[in-house]
Design brief:
The protein is α+β, with helices and mostly antiparallel strands. The protein is 21% helix and 42% strand. Strand 3 (87-95) and strand 4 (103-108) form a beta hairpin. The longest helix is centred in the first third of the chain and has 46 residues, at 3-48. The N and C termini lie far apart (90 Å).
């Protein structure tokens, strides 16, 4: 074999090795992406879908940078219609006094925009919340309407980063999957990407960091307390903090009950105006 043939053979071998490496990298990347999606799907099931339905009394504390507090108290009802898919939410407000008897309802759909309604008793009016308002503040808190019911998994792309403990969360030190997610449609979300730490055992999100279009951290979610309720791990205390203003919202779930037998007709405009007492007390 002359030198030209040897060089040609070496070149072909090099090309083959590069192609093989590229294929292995592609398969590995695809496997990690699939693993990340699976982790997020399990996390949503654990966080948003435990039980067939749920009832809870929710206390929301809005705290300004200088320590001033405002309180929101409400009853939250949730019913699942499809595992990891369609749901309905109903929220009744007790306090403060200026929002007492206000109600909020969500029809969450898989694969399309959710429907949301807000009943304002002072005006005796039911207001339909536009789809693009899902990123607006929920009753003045640091949570958005979308934070309450969650994003569709299909709206984002995911990347598995590594396994580590959730940083800066001394209340819950557990081994977590670190996942990076980014919206497929940049105009459809306020964040450019999000880092999540998902508990390996419970699949609950222990911490989430939201980064804006400039890559700056602007919002942080933390799970501050987890309890076992009827066999389900539940985040009973959580916080969302605005890193730019210093404002934060602390939320506590009390009297949490699953599989209480919520009726379908509860989630209608009729009961937005006059909710049944047995479900909101």
């Amino acid at each position: 074999m002359n030198q030209a043939n040897i060089n040609s053979f070496k070149f072909q071998v090099l090309c083959f090795m590069l192609l093989l490496a590229s294929c292995i990298l592609h398969l590995a990347t695809s496997a990690f992406a699939a693993e990340a999606v699976d982790i997020v799907r399990k996390s949503q099931l654990a966080f948003l879908y435990p039980g067939k339905d749920m009832k809870a009394r929710v206390y929301m504390k809005l705290i300004s940078k200088d320590g001033k507090e405002r309180i929101r108290e409400m009853t939250m009802l949730r019913k699942n219609y499809q595992e990891g898919g369609d749901q309905k939410y109903f929220i009744y407000f007790y306090q403060p006094q200026d929002v007492r008897d206000m109600t909020f309802m969500v029809y969450k759909f898989s694969g399309r925009d959710d429907d949301r309604w807000l009943f304002m008793p002072a005006l005796n009016m039911v207001r339909r919340i536009a789809a693009n308002d899902k990123r607006s503040s929920f009753v003045g808190s640091d949570f958005t309407y979308e934070d309450i019911s969650g994003r569709d998994i299909e709206d984002d792309v995911y990347e598995f980063i590594k396994i580590e403990e959730a940083p800066g969360n001394p209340c819950i030190q557990k081994e977590c999957y670190k996942i990076k997610s980014a919206p497929k449609d940049e105009k459809g979300a306020d964040f450019s990407y999000k880092l999540s730490w998902v508990d390996k055992n419970s699949s609950l999100p222990l911490k989430e960091e939201y980064y804006d279009k400039r890559g700056e951290l602007y919002k942080v979610f933390t799970a501050d307390e987890i309890k076992d309720i009827q066999g389900f791990p539940v985040i009973t205390m959580r916080t969302m903090k605005d890193m730019k203003t210093g404002h934060r919202t602390e939320v506590e779930f009390k009297k949490v009950k699953f599989n209480v037998g919520l009726e379908d007709d509860l989630f209608t405009e009729r009961y937005l105006k006059k909710p049944l007492k047995k479900w909101i007390e």
